[in-house]
Amino acid sequence: MRGAQAAAVVAALALLAGLASADEHNHRYQVGDVVTLWVNKVGPYNNPQETYNYYLLPFCKPKPADKTRHKWGGLGEVLQGNELIDSQLELKFRTDMPKRDICTMNLDDDKVEDFTEAVRRHYWYEFFADELPIWGFVGPPPEQTKGDSNVYIYTHKTFDIAYNGDRVIHINLTSESPQPLTSGASLTFTYQVQWKAVSIPFVRRFERYLDFNFFEHQIHWFSIFNSFMMVIFLTGLVSMILLRTLRKDYARYTARDAEDLESLERDMNEESGWKLVHGDVFRPPKYLEVLAALIGTGVQLALLVLSVILITIAGTLFVERGTIVTVFIICYALTSFVGGYVSGGFYARNEGKNWIQTMLVTACLFPLSCFSIAFVLNTIAIFYQSLAAVPFGSIVIVLLIWMFISFPLCLFGTVVGRNWAGAPDHPCRVKRIPSPIPDKKWYLRPHIIALVGGLLPFGSIFIEMYFIFTSFWNYKVYYVYGFFLLVFLILLIVTVCVTIVGTYFLLNAENYHWHWTAFSAGASTSLYVMLYSVHYFVMKTKMTGFFQTAFYFGYTLMFCLGLSIMCGAIGYLGSLAFVRRIFRNVKVD
Ligand SMILES: *[C@@H]1O[C@H](CO)[C@@H](O)[C@H](O)[C@H]1NC(C)=O
Predict the structure, then answer these.
(1) Angle at the Cα of 27 (from 22 to 31), degrees rounded to 5?
(2) At what angle do helices 481-508 and 514-523 cross, to 10 degrees?
(3) N or C end of the chain: smaller count of CB under 10 Å?
């Protein structure tokens, strides 16, 4: 029974990941076998998300228009705005084909207008054959044909396909014979196919799409080295603080004579530092429900990112369209247990009573925020008739995954967390009456500490941000997940160290409102990422139009939201461990 259930789940997941679609998946062909050429999307080159169905432009359509074959490539693929349609252009394995007509069309005013707009805006299109992407431009850019009032469109395509044994290795598409777009003219679109044997092994065929010079540039190594130095410096700083704060406690243990103890006591009273707040430091934070939910979600996200990176490295998933998104969604659903566990345990330890409400906030907070942003973007995409609009069915699948996997796991996690990790265990008792907080220097105010806190973590990742942004917005395949893993770990360490230092300063200023300060000190990293993304948008991309701008900032917002929750939670937990450690030996009368 259980086995059958497990098998069903695995089958469902395989279907989601698109593993179930057969024949193209073993990538082996006999001479003369059909290699399906799929058309995917078309759109302005500078706006990577502004994509349309290939046949939205008046290209030659496959003959029986009602029987077009679609390919279900998995959830991730659909969410990324792909829709593969069989072009019905004949492509036979290792069979050269001389020039052949696709169709002849009479250009009326509408078609001329559509094509002209497409060429003017540098429309390019994407095909797939044997899972290999093929790109081409609709027409030569108008700058190339300066001094000519006509706009041209390519009418001939040559597919040069390299094969090795029974495998397709790579495909070159050459667009030729540009013809002027004039109303009333008749254009004949043609294509031809040439096969060529090469000795490149199948396993290395994807290397062609990887930009080694870009990703393995010196600067990338240098930035890692730099961040590493920062880690060493910060961990040094934190150890020093720990030594300083704990030294006296150890001294107390070794101090045998009473005088020594007395002088120590005096020492402690003179010190107007963190020890004075022992009666308040474990006072439950304001908005405990929200903090618990954020911390649960943050830990979940950290674990999620870690697992996605490891799975991607293990399976070289970047070669397959959309798989990473699918893995991400499934891992999110599965890690919901951890989110619930951490949030439920934390909430119970702080003696919160509304645990159901907290669980609901934990389960909904991040998905709902992302869903709202995605909803707005989707509405825009539908309005523009773009392929980026997610079809209704896929939305339902995502909702079902959330409802039947993520939510129950979060609930279960909360219950387990409350029972196993929910006993209050603060090292110091909380005083009944809160102490007043002395007015201190401006730079020791919580919001300044919170704001400054994000600077160093941001500094440790911003070069990587450049690489990630460039792969996402400028058509580069991101494949250096080893770097990613390193930077991710560095980010976590730096965030923890910085928030610990911030918390230490705050407590020394006798301000015990450290909970939200620690969280915000980590979370403010994403504020700087947001600012950086504005810089990147203005300086490094040529995006135009409302559609692409909305998508750029919508996606960035989702990313920053996740980043802030994750960094905030990790920073907070680091500080919590620190605070518990330093107050453990404080003797209260
Ligand atoms: C495709 O283009 C590349 C680079 O221009 C070339 O090295 C390769 O031989 C071409 N392949 C075929 C099958 O023509």
Answers:
(1) 110
(2) 150
(3) C
Atom of ligand 1 nearest to the CA of 194: 13
Please check whether residue 62 is in contact with residue 102, taking contact to mean a CB–CB distance below 8 angstroms.
no
SS3 content of the chain, % helix, strand, coil (to 5): 60, 15, 25
Q: Pick from 163, 170, 171, 172 the residue to mutate for probing ligand 1's pocket: most ligand atoms within 8 Å of its CB.
A: 172
Q: For the segment 253-280, what is each residue's pLDDT rounded down to a tens digit?
A: 555 555 555 555 555 554 557 888 888 8
Instruction: Return the domain boundaries, the chain.
Output: 23-209, 232-282+444-589
Look at residues 191, 193, 176, 31 and name the one whose alpha carbon lies nearest to residue 97.
Answer: 193
Cβ(542) – ligand 1 distance below 6 Å: no
Residue 252 has pLDDT above 80, yes or no: no
At residue 262, the pLDDT reads: 59
Distance 223 CA to ligand 1 centre (A): 35
DSSP H helices, 524-544, are 525-540
Exposure letters 522-552 (e unless 16+ CB within 10 A, then b):
bbbbbbbbbebbeebbeeebebeeebbebbb
The mean per-residue pLDDT over the stretch 397-407 comes to 95
Q: Which of 91, 160, 175 to mutate to test the pocket of ligand 1 (most atoms within 8 A of CB)?
A: 160
**Token representation of residue 537:** 């948008």
Whose CA is closest to atom 5 on ligand 1? Answer: 172
* Mean pLDDT, residues 212-219 taken together: 89
234-247 pLDDT, tens digit per residue, is 999 999 988 887 77
Residues 364 and 366: their CA atoms lie apart, in Å, by 6
Q: For residues 422, 423, 426 and 430, what is the CA-based torsion angle, rounded to 10 degrees?
A: 100
CA 162 to centroid of ligand 1, rounded, Å: 8
Instruction: Measure 172 CA to ligand 1 centroid, in angstroms.
Output: 6
Residue nearest to atom 4 of ligand 1 (CA): 172
Between 441 and 376, residue with greater pLDDT:
376
Neighbours of 492 (CB within 10 A): 21
Give the whole-angstrom CA distance, residue 344 versus residue 362: 9
| Residue 23 confidence (pLDDT) | 56
pLDDT for position 19: 43
Instruction: List, in sequence order, every residue forming a beta bridge with 171; answer none if it has no partner.
Output: 161
Going by C-beta distance under 8 Å and a sequence separation of 6 or more, which residues neighbour residue 424?
Answer: 348, 349, 350, 351
User: CA of 217: how far to CAs of 350, 376, 434, 465, 468, in Å?
Assistant: 48, 38, 55, 15, 14
Average pLDDT taken over every residue of the chain: 88
Closest among 150, 155, 160 to 138, alpha carbons compared: 155
For 345-366, letters b (16+ CB in 10 Å) and e give: bbbbbbebeebeebbbbbbbbb
Q: Which residues contact 107 (CB under 8 A, 6 or more apart)?
A: 115, 181, 182, 183, 184, 185, 186, 187
pLDDT single digits (tens) 75-115: 888 888 888 999 888 899 999 999 999 989 999 999 999 99
